[in-house]
Amino acid sequence: MKNIIYILGVIFLCFSCSKKTTTVHLKGQLKGMAPKEVMCYDGTASIVGDSRDILIYTDENGYFDTIIELSKPEYFSISRNTLYLTPGDDLEMVITENNQEATFSGTGAEANNYMKKRLFPKGGSFLEAGRYVRADFFQTKSTVDSLAEVRRHELAELKKVSSDFKRMEEARITADVVNSYISYASYRKDIRFDWQAYQQASQEEQKRINEERQKIRDAYLTAITPDLKRLCKTLTDTLFLNVAVVRDILSYSERDQYGWFEGIELPERTKELYEAVDKVEALRQAVTATTVNQARDFIARAKYQDVATEVRHKADQAGKLVKGQPAIDIIIKDVDGNIKHLSDFRGKVIYLDLWATWCGPCIQESPAFEALSKKYEGKDIVFLPVSTDSQMATWKSYLQSHHKDLPQYISQDQALKDDWCVKYIPRFILIDRDFKIVDAYAPRPSEEGIESLLNSVL
What we know:
Helix content: 40-55%
Order of helices and strands: HEEEEEEEEHHHHHHHHHHEEEHEHEHEEH
Structural class: alpha+beta
Number of domains: 4
Mean pLDDT: 92
Oligomer: single chain
Strand order of the largest sheet: 10-9-13-12-11-14-15
Shape: globular
Largest sheet: 7 strands, mixed
Number of strands: 15
């Protein structure tokens, strides 16, 4: 009997020990952020959709303590911070909008402290917005390569990370080098020009300047093809698709005019991923029954379920945004903090401007939006500028120094992202008197055709 009990005990212990951990414990503080912040999934399929995003709720001081389900290691991002989370991690963190200020302790801290130094492609990666641009490409290349070696040494020194993490981060360094070489074209002295003088030049002169700059750029990008080809060839492993900058570099293969990917065969999974991106982008450009059906056709034949899941999620979202569908309500606040709903304006045509104080193109559209509203004064239409800023104080401060004639509103309603699919701004939405969607991706106020569209609804 004792032997039977012993055997059962051993079996139980073996089962318990072999049970796979599927949770991550996170606690700490999100400083200077909204009471609810999205932890964005940043792995392979994030280029297609965002169904794996996780909402983190904090108290009024930004503190949180949460457990998330996670079946395998994944990258996530909060503001400019990139996290690498592995089932079993138990992390305490303090995060601000400046990734260099983040602190991590506990299980999983080593990988995340390393990630604090992640470079940003939009800054030219190792060029860091021009900081490391030298007199010519050869000197710049030498600097970039040296910085990359420093980063590789830091990666090699890590002790408590997986081999997959090291491989992916090695690929990130290589992709950052590629991005640096490409970005150098925008920093060359012979390509830069006086923007103010350019704006004052004639159309013919502007055309000549643009053509000359493009010739120089094309000649440079062709000249560095051997370097880029050699590096791009090392980035084709599908594991590396988890790294955002690698996905950026591989996307050039679809419009490769310089031969960077000549002779490089991309895996089937990579090809399907970028086909999925095209289907989702079509949904963003035109939400119609046709684009929705094309997305569903792709889902039916897709081989990789993580990709298909994201396309399905976007197709389901887009299906709710087709012309004639009921408009999705959102909560908005005025400058005094009074709560309103988008549906409060039912009975009038609604032209909605989604913007933010940090968005340059949004700011450029604002005068056109206000001017258009004046042209339609007295008509059965309301022009609603709604800020998507995460901080009400930032929005109010901006309005104090920028006079607006229209009543101003702000919204952090999750329905903007989850239901209206607001992935980028500026975004304009047109709704009819019956609170039904006319165009979920309406033309900008500065674009031709907006007045005829408004008139057709009125």
